[in-house]
Design goal:
By secondary structure, the chain is α/β, with parallel strands linked by helices. It has 2 domains: about 160 residues, Aspartate Aminotransferase, domain 1; about 240 residues, 3-Layer(aba) Sandwich (Aspartate Aminotransferase, domain 2), CATH 3.40.640.10. About 40% of the residues lie in helices and about 15% in strands. Helix 3 packs antiparallel against helix 11, helix 4 runs parallel beside helix 11 and helix 12 packs parallel to helix 14. The longest helix has 22 residues. The mean pLDDT is about 95. The chain binds pyridoxal-5'-phosphate.
């Protein structure tokens, strides 16, 4: 039941090996080793390799291809925009209709008061801007972040990202960051004070293992921020743009952020991000003028792709589809857990932002799934977790394919054959 792909020229094995060699030789990598897959094409939930193998993609390039790879409306929007113009000015200098259109769309679903957005090119860049904005708006030095958090790898974003081994070699980072346990309001209350510029939080922790907080956590953080005069920054980089079955994952709870950051899926597969906030908070970037800048943020071709992706989600009922197929996926995973309770410890998720927890090491299981034609991922800050974040257009039949392959892999492990 893999999505049909148009024929592409197949490379010879020699050409495939040459790309793998040249990739290893020429591209600076942060993970050692030669890559297994040379990509030729991707469509819907299917990825095709240069030597003609098909994979069911249950990752979406880590929550990016929400409307599926190469959605025809996104491809057409990119093509048409590229024919008109791509980059023509530093962001904010000219009025670019595509920037207006994407900002109007994302702010229309962002909740009361959040009517303004600043466009970026990535999640880390969105979080950098949000931290600067919070610091300048409040005039305060301190940030509160959470254990297992991930907000990106640039200096500011890294400063509020939890894992010590990735922060420590780059110190000194931002000087006043306090990490508290996620989903622990007492700990948050002890940390948030009159020196706190902002609390930065993921509505569901992505790299932390798709961890869903208790119902009172985000509303409780809102109250604590209000009491201390701190801003609440909600990082929707991984969870936003429909992934959880709502436009933004925090909308599963009654909470109003001061700042939302987003990236990943908002560009429909191209580099685009956004910081969404109120006009009052953003006014601080105008005083003095040019307090924040980017050359490529809000690139018109990326905006055109984002507009098309937004319209696909809205007009094709993808939020409802995501909620329904997400529930189906979790139901199927639960049945696998019931079958292999010694191997699968937990299943969790909202919409198609899902994970299951293994009692054995995750990477060999992910590798075996890949061997059998299914792509899944591990997460950065939770060792036994397998992330399942397929394109939101996935069908129940494709979910059945995934579950069937997973069952085969777990059966092989249970019987000692893998
Ligand atoms: C919640 C969250 N914030 C920020 C980032 C960083 O985004 P980027 O890789 O686009 O810089 C990520 C990336 O995985 C993320 O999951």
């Amino acid at each position: 039941m893999l999505s049909p792909l148009a024929p592409t020229p197949t490379m010879t094995q020699q050409e495939v090996e040459s790309y793998r060699d040249r990739f290893a030789a020429g591209l600076s990598q942060t993970v050692p080793g030669r890559k297994e897959i040379v990509v030729a094409q991707a469509r819907g939930c299917t990825l095709k390799t240069a030597d003609g193998r098909l994979y069911l993609d249950m990752t979406s390039g880590i929550a990016v291809a929400n409307v599926g790879h190469c959605h025809p409306r996104v491809v057409e929007a990119i093509t048409e925009q590229a024919k008109r113009y791509s980059h023509v000015n530093v962001y904010g200098r000219f009025a670019i209709p595509e920037q207006v259109e994407i900002v109007e769309r994302i702010t229309s679903v962002a909740g009361p008061g959040l009517t303004t957005a600043y466009l970026t090119s990535s999640g880390a860049e969105s979080n950098e801007g949000a931290l600067k904005l919070a610091r300048k708006f409040t005039g305060r030095p301190k940030f509160v972040a959470f254990q297992r958090s991930y907000h990106g790898r640039t200096f500011g974003a890294l400063s509020v990202s939890w894992r010590e081994e990735w922060r420590q070699p780059f110190e000194p980072l931002l000087p006043e960051v306090e990490f508290v346990p996620y989903d622990d309001l007492d700990a948050a209350a002890a940390a948030i004070d009159h020196r706190t510029a902002a609390v930065i939080v993921e509505p569901i922790q992505g790299e932390g293992g798709i961890r869903i907080p208790s119902d009172d956590f985000l509303p409780g953080l809102r109250s604590l921020c209000d009491a201390a005069g701190a801003l609440l920054v909600i990082d929707e980089v991984q969870g936003g743009f429909g992934r959880s079955g709502k436009w933004f994952a925090h909308q599963h709870w009654d909470v109003r952020p001061d700042i939302i950051t987003m990236a990943k899926a908002v560009g429909g597969g191209l580099p685009l991000g956004a910081i969404i906030s109120t006009p009052e908070i953003f006014a601080t970037f105008v005083d003095p003028p040019l307090s924040h800048l980017t050359t490529m943020g809000g690139n018109p071709v990326a905006c055109a792709a984002g507009i098309a992706a937004f319209d696909v989600i809205a007009s094709e009922g993808l939020l409802e589809h995501t909620e329904r197929t997400g529930a189906y996926l979790r139901e199927r995973l639960e049945s696998i857990r019931a079958q292999y309770p010694d191997l699968v410890a937990d299943v969790r998720g909202k919409g198609l932002w899902c994970a299951f927890e293994l009692t054995v090491e995750a990477q060999p299981v992910a590798n075996e799934l890949q061997e059998r034609g299914v792509l899944v991922g591990s997460v950065l800050n939770s060792a036994g977790t397998i992330r399942v974040t397929p394109p939101l257009v996935i069908s129940p039949a494709e979910i059945d394919v995934f579950v069937g392959v997973l069952r085969g892999v777990l059966e092989a492990i249970a019987s000692g054959a893998a």
